[in-house]
Amino acid sequence: MKIALFSFLTTLAAPAGERVILFRERPVFINSGIEHSVSREDYERVRSWEPKAGSAAPLTSAQAVSIARSALAGKIDDHVLQAISLCEVNLYEKDIVKQLPVTGTRWFYLVSFTGKRPAPTRCVVTMSGVAASRRKFAD
Amino acid sequence: MTRFLCCAVISLLAMKSQGQENVITGIRTWRLADGTAKRLQLVYVPENASAAYFSASPGKKNLPVPMARFSPEDQSVLREVASKKTRLCLAHEIPMRLDFPVGPAKLSASDFYLGGDLREWKHADGKSILARVVNLTDEDVSLLAQRSISRVALSDLSPEDIAYLERLKRKKESVLQIGDVQVEAGGWEGGPSHYVLIDYEEFVDFAKLPAGFEIALETALETAEKAFPPDTWKLAEFTETSSHTKKLRRTMFVYTAEFSLKPKSYQIAKRKWPASTTPTSWPGEKCVILYLAADGTLLSAIIGS
């Protein structure tokens, strides 16, 4: 019964085929940016993990960088790794929080590469090793 | 005369041993035809070699000296510069000053030196010293050892030391900033409110470390677990960046762990890490930032503006 209720709630929160937005790049004073999202199925496959001492992340930072490089192949050939962050969905972005499946938030890697252009090229990698799709959006 | 010959021989040997063009700093005691001599910094010799231009006082035009006024030996050096057989070392990252101070070194964030790697220098008398080059001329080298600067004549150095200096002049050895190095800055209210400064020796050691994301993350979490009561803190974000400046040819990985805090932990953080904890006036979420090196060493932040 519990499983059935859980599945029902999950369906309500994020219908099949819908994408789950994990991160939104929004340059200051510009009403457009890039959304990083994964399919609902991919999101639900991500194992629950919390950063606590003695609990290694399911995916290492080096693996995340390698996945991000492959996902951005052709776009970042002349770029260098600028930063790698371990983060969660920004809880202040209410609409992003609302669309999350009931399984809750999941930690992910945000990998930033820098090249000739001032703005970095970023890639979100889930803890199950899936690189999020990038899509331009406008408010 | 003996010193001139020593310099000339050393330069020539170094040049031949490397099969490269001769590179000089141009800072030496130049001898005039009338028998007098003066230590000056050569800046330029035109192709026609009619005169040589030397650095004058700051803000003034370079001082031209007619070629005929120099001794025959120095005319020969200057003609080599004019014909480009000898190149003037103009790499400004190498410290080359006419009169570099000797004695206790002032090392701070605002008053730093540029210098070479820490290496063993061998004196002709058999003694050796672990030091960094902080100034170079055609006659001597200034060495920084344990925060004290001494000047050693090139003629008193070993062939290995001379070869090292030749590589340095050709940009084949690293030069770094010696003094406190700013590796990170952070803050909440319109610009940085705190800085992470580390000693140059530490920076050099940290720069040798490979990335240590997982090690630094584990240390950050252990530190928070020890410092704060359970359920009063949460990791908000953990980031790896690399720190370097244009003057530094080395890169160090720096890790930033930002923790969201409940009131009880916030009070602890304010006591333990006052510089990198949100100020009480901050209207947003209370948090603390811990800075770490790749081996998990906690780097302390200082308040600054």
How would you characterize this protein structure?
The complex is a heterodimer of chains A (139) and B (305). Chain A is of the alpha+beta class and 139 residues long. Chain A has four helices and six strands. Chain A has helices at residues 2-13, 40-45, 61-71, 94-98; strands at residues 19-25, 32-39, 80-87, 108-114, 121-126, 133-138. In chain A, strands 1-2-6 form a three-stranded antiparallel sheet. A three-stranded antiparallel sheet of chain A has the order 3-4-5, covered by helices on one side. In chain A, β1 and β2 form a beta hairpin. Chain A starts with a helix and ends with a strand. Residues 1-14 of chain A have low confidence and may be disordered. With 305 residues, chain B is of the alpha+beta class. In chain B, the strands form six sheets. Chain B has a five-stranded antiparallel sheet with strand order 7-12-11-10-9, covered by helices on one side. β3 (80-87) of chain A pairs antiparallel with β16 of chain B.
Please summarize what this structure is.
Chain A is an alpha+beta fold.
List its traits.
heterodimer; A: 139 residues; alpha+beta; three-stranded antiparallel β-sheet; 4 helices; 6 strands; 24% helix; disordered N terminus; B: 305 residues; five-stranded antiparallel β-sheet; four-stranded antiparallel β-sheet; 6 helices; elongated
